[in-house]
C-alpha cells in the first residue's frame, strides 16, 4: 500500500516549502531589519543530490508541489541545477519559487527552462521610496521589470506577495488593487507575523487580515469558493474585472485547519510547523540513494505527529527568530 502524508487531524500534505539558503541581500523591516548575519557555526546547505533524494522521498508519498524559498533563493549559486533536478523528480508537477525579485529580469528565461512554473515575487510597496525604506534597496523598478520578464518567459503563474503593515503601507491598498487589475495579476496580502526577532515591530505595525477583507468587501470584491486542496489563502475577485486578491491571515480562527504544507530548512531539517519549537534533522538519511525506504518511513511517521496549530495568538512564535531562517 502506498504511504501518504497525513497527520492525526486528517490533513493531507502535498506541498513542500524547501529553503535553499538562509542568506538574504535585502533587509525587510519585518524580517531581517539589520540584514543577514552569518552565524559562526553555519552548517553547509543541502547539496543538489541531497535535495534530489529528499524531494524523491516526498514525491513517493504523494507530494506534487515544491516551492523553493529562503532567505533569498536566487542567491544560491546552484539554483538552476537544483530547479532542474527537482522538476525532473517523477510526480512533481508544480515547481514554484518565492523571491524578492533579485536579478529576475535577466534570469527569468533560465528559471522557466529549468522547470520553474510558478513564481511569487515580494513587493511591499509600489512607491519607490517606500519600497527602499522597507527593503533597504532602491530596486522597485528592477523588481517590476522582473515580473514582466517572468510572464514573458512563459512562467505560468506569477503572483505578488505584499505584507500590509499598519502605518507603513496600508494606505497603498487601493494602489495595489489598481495595479493588479491593470496587469491582470494575482496578489497575496500577508498579515505580518510575530517572530522572536520582530516583537516590537509586530506590536506597532500588525494589521489584521480581517480589516483588509472588510475593505475589499466595501469595494465590491467577492470571496471565491475554496478550491479542493487549496492552502490557507482566502481569495477574492471583483465580478467582471481582471485580477485576484488573496489574504493570508495566520491569526484568524481555523487558519491551521487548512494547512497543507511541510517545510525543510536549507540544512535539511524538517519543520512540521513554521512556528514549531524545533526542526528534525533528515540529513543523515540523505547521503545515499539506498536510504530511500528509511527516509520515506521517517517522513511519514513524523508528519503523522504534526500539532493541530501554531500558538501565535498566545504570543508564542516557537523557535523561529525570523522567517528567513525556515523559508517563510
Ligand atoms: N526572500 C524571498 C522573498 O522575500 O520573497 C523568500 C523568503 S521570504 C521569508 C518569504 C515570504 O515571507 C515573503 O513574501 C515575505 O514578505 C514573507 N515574510 C517574511 N517575514 C514575514 C513576517 N514576519 N510576517 C509575514 N510575512 C513575512
Ligand atoms: Fe530577505 Fe525575503 Fe526576509 Fe525580505 S522577506 S529580508 S527579501 S528573506
Q: Please state the average pLDDT score.
A: 93
By CATH, the topology is TIM Barrel
Question: Mind telling me the C-alpha Rg?
Answer: 19 Å
Low-confidence stretches: none
Question: What's the CATH C level?
Answer: Alpha Beta
Helix content: 25-40%
H and E order: EHEHEHEHHEHEHHEEEEEEH
Kindly report how far apart the N and C termini lie.
33 Å
Binned strand content: 15-25%
Main sheet: strands, sense, barrel: 12 strands, mixed
Record the strand order, biggest sheet.
7-8-9-6-5-4-3-2-1-10-11-12
- Structural class comes to alpha/beta
Question: Could you walk me through the main structural features you see in this protein, from its secondary elements to its overall organization?
Answer:
The chain contains nine helices and twelve strands. Helix 1 (48-60) runs parallel beside helix 2. Strands 7-8-9-6-5-4-3-2-1-10-11-12 form a twelve-stranded mixed sheet. The longest helix is centred in the N-terminal third of the chain and has 13 residues, at 48-60. The protein has one domain (15-314): Aldolase class I (TIM Barrel), CATH 3.20.20. The mean pLDDT is 93. It starts with 14 loop residues before the first strand and ends in a 25-residue tail after the last helix. 28% of the residues lie in helices and 17% in strands. By secondary structure, it is an alpha/beta fold. The chain has helices spanning 48-60, 79-87, 104-113, 128-135, 140-152, 173-183, 199-205, 209-218, 292-303; strands at residues 15-19, 65-69, 94-99, 118-122, 157-164, 186-191, 222-223, 234-237, 244-248, 261-264, 269-271, 280-281. Iron/sulfur cluster binds at residues 24, 26-28, 31-32, 70-72, 100, 122, 324. Residues 24, 26-28, 31-32, 70-72, 100, 122, 324 line the site of iron/sulfur cluster.
Amino acid at each position: 500500500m502506498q504511504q501518504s502524508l497525513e497527520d492525526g487531524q486528517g490533513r493531507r500534505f502535498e506541498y513542500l516549502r524547501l529553503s535553499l539558503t538562509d542568506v538574504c541581500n535585502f533587509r525587510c523591516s519585518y524580517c531581517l531589519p539589520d540584514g543577514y548575519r552569518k552565524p559562526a557555526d553555519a552548517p553547509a546547505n543541502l547539496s543538489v543530490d541531497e535535495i534530489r533524494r529528499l524531494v524523491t522521498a516526498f514525491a513517493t508519498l504523494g507530494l506534487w508541489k515544491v516551492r523553493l524559498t529562503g532567505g533569498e533563493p536566487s542567491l544560491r549559486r546552484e539554483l538552476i541545477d537544483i530547479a532542474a533536478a527537482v522538476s525532473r523528480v517523477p510526480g512533481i508537477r508544480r515547481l514554484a519559487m518565492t523571491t524578492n525579485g533579485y536579478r529576475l529580469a535577466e534570469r527569468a528565461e533560465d528559471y522557466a527552462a529549468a522547470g520553474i512554473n510558478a513564481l511569487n515575487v515580494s513587493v511591499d510597496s509600489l512607491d519607490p521610496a517606500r519600497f527602499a525604506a522597507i527593503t533597504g534597496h532602491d530596486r522597485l523598478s528592477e523588481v517590476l521589470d522582473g515580473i514582466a520578464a517572468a510572464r514573458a518567459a512563459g512562467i505560468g503563474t506569477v503572483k505578488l506577495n505584499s505584507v500590509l503593515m499598519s502605518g507603513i503601507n496600508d494606505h497603498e491598498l487601493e494602489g495595489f488593487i489598481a495595479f493588479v487589475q491593470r496587469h491582470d495579476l494575482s496578489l497575496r496580502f500577508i498579515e505580518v507575523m510575530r517572530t522572536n526577532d520582530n516583537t516590537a515591530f509586530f506590536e506597532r505595525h500588525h494589521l489584521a487580515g480581517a480589516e483588509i477583507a472588510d475593505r475589499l468587501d466595501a469595494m465590491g470584491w467577492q470571496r471565491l469558493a475554496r478550491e479542493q486542496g487549496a492552502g490557507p489563502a482566502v481569495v477574492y475577485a471583483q465580478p467582471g474585472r481582471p485580477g485576484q486578491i488573496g489574504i493570508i491571515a495566520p491569526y484568524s480562527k481555523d487558519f491551521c485547519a487548512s494547512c497543507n504544507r511541510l517545510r525543510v530548512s536549507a540544512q535539511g531539517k524538517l519543520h512540521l510547523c513554521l512556528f514549531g519549537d524545533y526542526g528534525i534533522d533528515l540529513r543523515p538519511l540523505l547521503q545515499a540513494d539506498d536510504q530511500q525506504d528509511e527516509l520515506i518511513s521517517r517522513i511519514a511517521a513524523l508528519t503523522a505527529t504534526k500539532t493541530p496549530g501554531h500558538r501565535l495568538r498566545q504570543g508564542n512564535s516557537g523557535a523561529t527568530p525570523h522567517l528567513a531562517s525556515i523559508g517563510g
